[in-house]
Amino acid sequence: MYNVRPRITRVLSMIMISALMIPLVSGCTKGETATNKGQSTQPDTQQEQKEEKKDPVTLKFPIWSTITEDLFTKLDLVNEYKKEHPNVTIELELLKDTEYENTMKIRNAANELPDILPLKSAWLINFKDNIVPLDDLDAAKNNIFAADFKVDDHIYGVPESQFNEFVWYHKSIFKEYGIEIPQTWGEFVAAAKTIKDGGKYIPIAMGGKDGWPNYPFNEFMPSLVANDGDYWSTMATKDEPFTKGEAFYDAYVKIQELYDAKVMGPDPLGVGFDQSKLMFGSNQAAMIALGQWFGSDLKSMTDVDMNDIGAFLLPVRNSVDDPFNTISMVDTFFSIPKSSKYPDEAKEFINWFFSDAWYSKYMTEAQLQSTMKDVKIDLGTMFDGAFDVSNLNYVLNKGGNEDYKKIETAIKFDVKKMGQDMMAGKDFNKMMQDMNKSWKNARSK
Amino acid sequence: MKTISMQKNILLFGFLLIPVLLLLMFVLYPLIELVRISFTDWNGMAAQQVYIGFDNYIKMFTDSSDVWLSLRNNGIYFIFHLIMIPLELAIAVLLDSKIRASKFFKSIIFMPYIINGVAISYIFAFFYSPINGGLNGILEALGLESLIQNWLTNDSIVNISLVFVSIWRFSGFHVILFLAGLQSIPQDQFESAKIDGANSIQNFWYIIVPGIKKVLEVILFLNIVGALQVFDIPYIMTQGGPGHASSTFTLYTLETAFKFNSFGMASAMGITMLILIIILNGVQNRLFNLKGVGEE
């Protein structure tokens, strides 16, 4: 009897200690995989196992758009690729578009980037230390735009699509008020005012609450006025780009004129993108300024009469004799992180993705323009007449160089927030003066 | 005997080792890292981290007016919640007395606290919405069209609109805490006070207030922490907008880190927040001279 209690205590304590140790030990192994650049034992054993079974490879491929996900599912990307590469499995992961960049930054810190990393043009600079150069890749060589977005003289990403920015409109509303497609900025503002005076519709739907939907104006118009797709980099060479006569200032005067005309409903800042989309879709609003991608959004909405929807390029010029500058966006740069365990397979996949067989099928479905030299995409009838303007001139949008990024970070330069401030009616001149001051200050450092 | 004492030690060591290790790994190590990063210019991605001394801290307060604006907004939350505390106490006293259906009222009052904060923010975003929004609808129905506002986009009232949501959400929790405090006061104190002929105001001042000082201390602390760290309500309802008008310190920190890739600066802001909480709490405790019953 005397000895029983200590024995029970010993047994119990052993059980409890080992129970508590198990999660701790397994926690440690996980920590190591994250920090030791994938050199811990766990992945190795996995790899060995895989080699035995004729090298099955899983390529992780995140995407940020539900539209892309739908298209990949519809066209069956995973199995199409498996037909040609039976050992490779493509693992798609859908992330929320607003969280995508943050997620990738966090994964980068943990050395857990995927095998194929789609990026936006502006992020190439941020990730350049973590992705491999793709100069020798066939897909990069045959791409029209890849070389335009070189960072430190290397191609780091192969862009998937090219698209333009449009103003989407209801043909019936334009007809009702006898409005022609505007050819100049003045005509555009006048058209909006005509609809406003009619009192029946909101002229332009704007999801100002979300900030980003003002990008066709606040982000792109300085480039259009300057006729310089790399205007951010140009701005970084100037001390006071917010001065009258500079493209940024002139563009923003125009934007302020539009916002002051109150043609975006009673409270554009109280409406988010989803609401603005519905307002346009349900005929409450006559126009909405968004990129070509919005076409697939519209198609997916029920109750939208696609025959009533038209698109025209946003006119920024002052007179019809000036060149009609319009933004050309290149998006979704395929890159390969250095941490990928299967860089060769990832390269192979990118080459396949941009091969005629898959790429033209996919782009036709997505209704976006091709970035590849020999591939032409039929865009259907939705954009009929949109490009029939005099003196059309494409301005290829770029994300700004490293000098610009430094200033952007230092003064937290955010044109979309500026757009919100302008809609809220902040003092425009004071805003420009303050920007000049902090810009100059940041440049001097 | 020796083995028993050894077993005791092993047992103690075994039980202590794990929590201590976990604490070091998940609390202390990240904190030290945070402090370290706050002295660098790390952008969150580059392999290289350059030490720049106190630059981040200096820049935070001298170079950016938005930090002050955000802190002012935090201050608005703090002050309004502080003003609400006596009212919350009054409600608690009311619910503690024998009123009809007090249980029902208790549940109703506590309800907002257990609803998901994100859901609350969305509900109120629609409530304040300029298009088909509930609040403007109510005002219209009551014939008070003149009071209709852009609740979330007018610079001068956006913060008040948001603070209202925060109060709606957290007041119930404070009331319940006060109630718990009230119920912990021994009944015999009230009985003897009754014998001594104390009126209800004296009861309140000499029995209830000292009795719930501990709870009050907790609530004041929660108020500081809550006001400085308020995040989900402005993030979802306005994203700090229009411009930075309703941005808070946490929101601004997040923006600094992820939108503008200044992880060094954001870490410095995190540390600053920690220090601010400690200082404000110290000041508040001294100001209210908070000592619980039996603590002299």
From TrEMBL, chain A:
Signal peptide (residue range): 1-27
Record's keyword annotation contains Membrane: yes
InterPro entries: Bact_solute-bd_prot1, SBP
Annotated Polar residues bias: 32-46
Gene3D superfamilies assigned: Periplasmic binding protein-like II
Keyword Ribonucleoprotein included in the entry's annotation: no
Region annotation (Disordered) ranges: 31-54
Record's keyword terms, sorted: Cell membrane, Lipoprotein, Membrane, Palmitate, Signal
PANTHER family for this protein: ARABINOSE-BINDING PROTEIN-RELATED, POLYGALACTURONAN_RHAMNOGALACTURONAN-BINDING PROTEIN YTCQ
Protein name in UniProt: Raffinose/stachyose/melibiose transport system substrate-binding protein
Source taxonomy: Bacteria, Bacillati, Bacillota, Bacilli, Bacillales
From TrEMBL, chain B:
TM ranges: 12-32, 75-95, 107-128, 157-182, 257-280
Gene3D superfamilies named among the record's database cross-references: MetI-like (1.10.3720.10)
UniProt record similarity statement: Belongs to the binding-protein-dependent transport system permease family.
PANTHER family named in the record: ABC TRANSPORTER PERMEASE PROTEIN, INNER MEMBRANE ABC TRANSPORTER PERMEASE PROTEIN YCJO
Lineage: Bacteria, Bacillati, Bacillota, Bacilli, Bacillales
A Pfam family the protein falls into: BPD_transp_1
InterPro entries with a match to the protein in the record: ABC_transporter_permease, MetI-like, MetI-like_sf
The ABC transmembrane type-1 domain, residue ranges: 70-284
Entry protein name: Multiple sugar transport system permease protein
Annotated keywords: Cell membrane, Membrane, Sugar transport, Transmembrane, Transmembrane helix, Transport
Locations listed in the record: Cell membrane
Topology of the protein relative to the lipid bilayer: Multi-pass membrane protein
Domain of life of the organism encoding this protein: Bacteria
Main localization (coarse): membrane
Keyword field contains Transmembrane helix: yes
